[in-house]
Amino acid sequence: MARNNQDTYASYQRDEFDNPPQGPVGAHRGKTSLASRIMPYFIVVIVAALVGALAWGVYSGEASHIRMPWSTSASSSAPKAKSAAPSAKDKTDTDKTDTPSTSASPSQKDSESPEASSSPSSSALQQTVNKNTAIVVTNATSISGHAAQRASALTQNGYTSVSSRNASGQIPSATVVMYQNEVDKATAQDVANTLGISLVEQVPTIAGPVVVVLLD
């Protein structure tokens, strides 16, 4: 015959677990505040905004202009280095500004034509030559009518007061065009060019403004 054991609640000995305390048992959570409930959503919105701003900055290239806190010292020292050591171009520009140019540069002098540097400018002579100046052509040669012939050449060149005569008194050693005052220098030079005479001298003691002495 099989044994039929039926254990019931009353068959066990009672202990402290059979007399639980009154009231709720276990962990209990109190009411949470409104700020605590919305804080996770707020954090999610902030993180999403930062991620969106970072993505836009990388895509548009604006992220390269953002200054990081650790780059402040490097960026602030750069202008000091630049101001302490100006570039060669800035120094050259400063020298050009502070030092006014008082003479033409060698390159400008070299660019002038040889004709202008070797002889007076024709336009300058025309501005100062006075063809109404009294000019005396003296003949110190043995050729008769030589002074009159050369005087005629001056008249054909536009001179209005030209006379000729034979030389007397002290005679120079070479054919020369002499002028009395500085204002007659340009006229004397033009007379010399017209007659093909190379020597032009200022002699304050001559009898007229311009005197030509022909020895050949």
Attribute tags:
alpha/beta; single chain; transmembrane; 42% helix; membrane; transmembrane helix; Cell wall integrity and stress response protein 1; 216 residues
Protein described:
Residues 71-87, 114-124 have a biased composition (Low complexity). It is a single chain. With 216 residues, the chain is α/β, with parallel strands linked by helices. The chain has a domain at 135-214: Alpha-Beta Plaits. It is built from 8 helices and 5 strands, in the order H-H-H-H-H-H-E-H-E-E-H-E-E. Strand 3, helix 8 (185-195) and strand 4 (200-202) form a beta-alpha-beta unit. The chain is rod-shaped. Residues 113-118 have low confidence and may be disordered.
Helix content: 40-55%
Shape: rod-shaped
Give me the Rg, rounded: 58 Å
Strand order of the largest sheet: 2-1-5-3-4
Mean pLDDT: 74
Task: Please give the largest β-sheet.
Answer: 5 strands, mixed
Q: SSE order in H/E notation?
A: HHHHHHEHEEHEE
